[in-house]
Request: fold
Amino acid sequence: MKKILALAALFLCVLPLAACGGNKETGKEEPQQELLSEYDFVRDFSSMQGYRGWNYYRGDLDGNLFPMTYHEDYGMYRGADYWMKIGIYEVVPGLNAESVISFTSPADTRLDVTATIFRNPPDGFGAGQDGVWFYGVLNDYTSEDLLFSEIVAENEYVLHTVEFSQDVKKGDVIYFALSCNGGQNNDNSVIRINIKTGGTAE
Ligand SMILES: [Ca+2]
Reply:
């Protein structure tokens, strides 16, 4: 009897393990995100949403996120209007819409995040305007519990650097949002995000 119970227990243990490697609907293997020692917005930038945990969204005033579309001609993601975009050379928010870069953790780990932003251009056409607001949240895009918050003024030619560490579970998402901070004119910004983990080197 004990032997039967032991076999049943073994079967129950093995069953979930066998099921977790594939998708029941398609029968295909699910891609598993390898835990690397470092993730970098520029190095990892891809036309494929989700590559190395990075996604590119448009966020609306109601807190909804919509995946942006990658445009081969421009080499960047485009948003709700002509100006709105996410690229490695430029990130521009929309009017009443935020450009949002997200990173999904591939494992339970600690993320050491360094994010920088500067205005491009810092002055000229945008003189006297309201600049941009760059901020971060964990998991809930609508959360008011901010990981960081930086206002970069229109004429400010200063590199803003944000550093923080965050313990995360696999699947936790950090959203890096760029808001027009009111007015949309001349909000072109350059953003860099680097995330170090306890993972293995590439
Ligand atoms: Ca603005």
About this structure: Residues 129-132, 180-184, 187 surround calcium ion (CB under 6 Å).
